[in-house]
Amino acid sequence: MNWIMLRLRSLFRVYYWQRRIKKMGRKVKIYHGVVAHSPKKVEIGNNSAIGDYVVIWGGGGVMIGNDVLIAAHSVISSESHDPNADIFRLSHLNKPIVIEDNVWIGASVMVMPGVTIGSNSVVGAGSVVTKDIPPDSVAVGVPAKVIRKRK
Questions:
Q1: How far apart are CA 61 and CA 136, in angstroms?
Q2: pLDDT range class, residue 10, cuts 50, 70, 90
Q3: Which domains does the chain possess?
Q4: Which of the following is catalytic: 32, 37, 73, 81?
Q5: What pTM was estimated for this model as a whole?
Q6: Is 136 exposed, middle or buried (0-12, 13-18, 19+ CB in 10 A)?
Q7: Among this protein's residues, is 92 annotated catalytic?
C-alpha cells in the first residue's frame, strides 16, 4: 500500500508542476519540497530530475535542458540585488540562467544570475557558480572553477 501512496504523490507533483511552469518536458522528476518563484519563467527539458528541497528563483528566466540532474538543496537564482544600490531591498537584477543538456549539479550548489553551464558538465557539491562553465567540464569550489575536462 505504501508504494501506491508514493506513486500517487509523485504523479500529483508532476501534474502540479506541469501547470505552474512555462514548459516541462517528458519524464521529468521533481522531488519533495521543490520551490519555484516566478515559475512561468522556468523551462525544464526531457528526462531531467530536480532533487529534494531545490529552490529556483526564476524571475530572470531559467532554462534547464534535457537529461539534467540537480541534486538536493541546490539553489538556482536568476534574481539578485544590486550590490551598489542605496537600498538593497528596492534593487533588482534579473539575468537568465541556462543549464544545457546532460549536466549534473551536485548537492547544495548555488548557481548565480547570468550563468550558463555547458552541456555534459559536472558541478561539484557545495560549489557556487558565478561564471559560465564551458561544455564537457568538471567545476568545483567557491567560486566554482574548472578543474578538468571530462573524458
A1: 23
A2: confident
A3: 2-149 (2.160.10.10)
A4: 81
A5: 0.91
A6: middle
A7: no
